[in-house]
From TrEMBL:
This is DUF3367 domain-containing protein. Keywords: Membrane, Transmembrane, Transmembrane helix. The chain crosses the membrane at residues 73-94, 115-137, 157-179, 191-212, 258-277, 298-320, 351-370, 376-395, 556-581. Signal peptide: none annotated.
Amino acid sequence: MRERVALYGLAAAICVAVLAPLAAPGYVLAFDMVFVPRQPLRWDLVAPADVLPRSVPLDAVVSLVTQVVPGWLVQRFALVAVLAVAAVGAGRLVPADRLPIRLGAALGYAWTPYLAERLLIGHWALLLGYAALPWLVQAVLRLRAGRPGALARVVLAAAPAVLTPTGGLIAFGVTAALVPGRGVPRRPAILAVLAVAALNLPWLVASVTTTAGGSSDPLGVPAFAARAENWSGVLGALAGTGGIWNAQTTPGSRASGLVPVATLALLALAVAGYPVLRRRWAGVAAGRYANGDDAPDVGVGGGVAGRFAGIAAVGFLLASAGALPVLRDGLAWLVVAVPGAGLLRDGQKFLMPYALFLVLCAALGAQRLAGRLAAVPAAAGAVLLGFLLLPVATLPDLGYGVAGRLRPVHYPADWDIVAARVAEQPGPVLSLPLSAYRNYPWNPGSVVLDPLPRYLPAEVVVDDTLVVGDLAVAGENSRAGGIRRLVGSGAPVARSGVRWVVVQRDAAGPVAGETLAGLHVVYSGPELTLYANPQFGLDDTSPARADRSVWTWRRWLAAGAGTLALGITLAALVALGIRAVSRLGRHPTPW
């Protein structure tokens, strides 16, 4: 009980320390983190017709939730969940004997460069998968031991991860690699792998049904490659769970020359702690089971530590592929030749298993070192205290919204007015100036993915060309590409087949007059101008215009995949609920 109170108390303290600026009202809009008051539920969010399903099923889930819960509250809940679930999960998973080690693992996993950088770039849904990973590994250990309810726990732990394709791949890889084994109950093992695979169906089906090209621009490989953050180079940054491609989303403390020293210390502790993890997960050494229960079953984790080390190594290799000359050319060929391989361009995302493995092993290494120094209590205490404080000492600027960079703002009144006008006559909308990201005066110091597609109750065409430094990485949306060529030729966008055009005031600058020729101003405000296209439905020359009659059955197929995934998740939740009730009634069940 004491350990549980301390662990949950630490998780609460981490949430307060990191998310304090979010006590103010408004929305945090940073790069890919876009929340709106009430995100409409549209077919193009469930089954995108012209773009790759990078936000499937995430957008559909957010749309459903915001029908009953305001977007600002959903954002707060999601960010608190990332930090709290990550901390508690790591603290419960580490098979340590001492409370400071469990607390150190909790803080070490919830206070990492990986989390800070992905938080700044707005990948909150990916971080839900990061937070769920310790719980997934713990559920797998339970399943291998034949514990009741383990299958349902595996499904529920994997569910947050599959909100994004990357998280879904990692969850499936971890499950498929760790579940099989000698002596493991066969039927639950097979069902667990199949269930996690089925949870990935929404984005897999959407990938097959979209008209967007499956290949990606090879320029994205160097653009999204991991980067050095200090004198230790790219591999040193990755070894410390940092190295994100976007320099704007790297905390300033990562440039410190002492960071590589701290990374080397963690690696040394991890080397010392790996044998302990291997023994304890194998159930050979005396100690506690991974979930905090009493003595483990013999053979519960035999070989699991080695397999998890392999998963971490594969993740590290994928993270470094774009930055290593030996692997870069192969990855560039892969993203062009293999549909969907563009998912691998931002390889640093796949550091997730490595980050957990590093924290677990380093925690046990610190415990082992403190045990060796038990004869000198002051020295042993210094080791435990140093391990506990090391994450904050090396990354102090994760606190207070990553040094104040995550702060709420309010959408101008123009946005609600334009949304209401579009809702009166729904139809395709074009967002101008052509740019994937926006730098608004009312959101100073922060770049954000264009919020219009999530704010308006209609399909919005946004240019998906991404400019990274001097590189312009082409997107996969053929319709947006056609409009870009149309604008580049000096032709009016009235010929693009859209019903509405919204011109936004941002750092991208003004829109040329010839681009807007033939359009009628419907609303003009300080931040947004809405134009109606009188040629809508009369002159549609867009080469990427999809035949919506063909899309009907494909969209229902995508909806069916989402329904199946939701049904599996709800079934797991019900199974655990029934088991909990039966335990209260002291009537064990076979689940």
